[in-house]
Design a protein that fits this description.
Layout (H helix, E strand, L loop, with lengths): L1 H25 L4 E10 L8 H23 L4 H14 L19 E7 L5 E7 L5 H11 L4 E3 H10 L13 H10 L4 H4 L7 E6 L5 E7 L20 E3 L4 E7 L1 H6 L2 H12 L3 H13 L6 E7 L4 E2 L6 E9 L4 E8 L1
Parallel strand pairs: 3-4
Antiparallel strand pairs: 1-5, 1-11, 2-3, 2-6, 5-6, 7-8, 8-9, 9-10, 11-12
């Protein structure tokens, strides 16, 4: 009997230790959300103080929206959607209202979202009537068997999901229209020098799960239904609890060819690199060496943040709560 009791005690202690380890892995004391609002030729010289103030306000509002979800025990998926919606509603960025225009003078938007826990993902491309494209991407992930829908089909799906539909004119701001008219007079070589104003968010929730989301109007004066990296899982958006969550911004063709978002995660998975080392290598060496411009926001399951970029600047912000203290940072330039 004594031996049986001893065996039971050992089993009980082992079970409690395993349970405690699992709880440590799956339950965090804090949460993190990181945002970007685009990278490119961003400097103090070409960003007036009043615009800097407006950008800081918009990014802070988006952080607050994400924090509201995370602090109440909400999921990282819900947090990135809440934050992205704020940025899509702001005319300061190239996503949603204020998106850049195609060669035909229209706003065509792309968005994607990915769950780091399940690797489920959803994306939309070339849509023109959904007020918040990120909600369409989330609907594809949650309510269809597909990963990506495009064009008229994606818009029909959005209607069936009862998402908010607006007139295409809603997205066109006076500033974007003025830029469109000016670029019509320029040659294509000058057009690629514009700022890449894509928006993105990555988050870590109290359950230890990661999520990533990206939304964009693409490239100014794009033709032929061009689609960039933002809605392509692994190129501009990726999340995996075993590595990190990533949202990219930059010259999409390069991010697609070099599968940048996934490549950062792969460096962590296969080389056991930190999120900082992996993202720096991909953005500032591998991508830069072939002429690819842009940046990424990255977040691992321990709450470590990396925001590398190889352009003069990148709009970025993060909010980190470790269970006791809250850290907030908004930055634009190197």
């Amino acid at each position: 009997m004594k031996r049986f009791a001893l065996v039971l005690m050992v089993i009980s202690i082992t079970f409690l230790n395993v349970f405690a380890q699992q709880s440590t892995i799956t339950k965090n004391k804090g949460y993190v959300i990181v945002l970007h609002g685009g990278a490119g030729d961003i400097s103090a010289q070409n960003t007036p103080p009043e615009k800097q103030a407006a950008l800081k306000s918009a990014l802070t509002e988006a952080l607050t929206a994400g924090k509201k979800v995370l602090s109440n025990g909400g999921t990282s998926l819900d947090a990135v959607v809440a934050a992205i919606k704020v940025l899509e509603d702001s005319p300061l960025f190239n996503a949603g209202k204020g998106a850049v225009l195609t060669a035909e003078g229209k706003a065509e938007m792309d968005a994607a979202i990915m769950d780091g826990k399940t690797l489920k993902a959803g994306a939309v491309a070339g849509i023109t009537i959904v007020k918040n494209p990120i909600t369409a991407a989330r609907a594809v992930m949650d309510h269809s068997e597909h990963v990506m829908l495009a064009g008229k089909g994606a818009e029909q799906f959005a209607r069936e999901q009862k998402l908010e539909i607006v007139d295409p004119a809603y997205f066109i701001t006076p500033e974007r229209w003025k830029s469109f008219q000016k670029m019509k007079e320029q040659d294509s070589l000058k057009r690629v020098k514009e700022k890449f104003g894509t928006v993105g968010a990555v988050a870590l929730d109290l359950d230890g799960n990661l999520a990533a989301a990206t939304s964009t109007g693409g490239m100014m004066m794009k033709k032929f239904g061009r689609i960039g990296d933002s809605p392509i899982i692994g190129a501009g958006t990726y999340a995996n609890n075993d590595a990190c969550a990533v949202s990219c911004t930059g010259h999409g063709e390069f991010f697609i060819r070099y599968v940048v978002a996934y490549d950062i995660a792969a460096q962590m998975l296969y080389k056991d690199w930190s999120v900082d080392k992996a993202s720096d290598f991909v953005i500032n060496h591998k991508l830069k060496d072939v002429g690819g411009e842009g940046g990424a926001i990255c977040l691992d399951r321990k709450g470590n943040i990396a925001t590398p970029f190889n352009t003069p600047g990148m709009y970025r912000a993060w909010l980190k709560f470790d269970g006791k203290n809250e850290e907030i940072n908004v930055a634009f330039f190197k």
